[in-house]
Amino acid sequence: MTASLYSSRAAASRHIQHEPVLRLENVAYTYAHGMQTKAALEPINLNIRRGEFVCVVGPSGSGKSTLLALLAGFLKPQQGQILLEGQPLNGPNAGQTLVQQEAALFPWLTVCGNVEFGLERKGMKRSERKKRALDTLELVGLLEFAERRVHELSGGQRQRVSIARGLVLEPSLLLLDEPFSALDVSTREHLGVELLELWKRTGTTILFVTHHLDEALRLGGRVIALRDGKMVLEGESSGITEPQLRALL
Ligand SMILES: Nc1ncnc2c1ncn2[C@@H]1O[C@H](COP(=O)(O)OP(=O)(O)O)[C@@H](O)[C@H]1O
Ligand SMILES: [Mg+2]
Question: Residue 97 C-alpha to ligand 2 middle, in angstroms?
Answer without folding.
Answer: 16
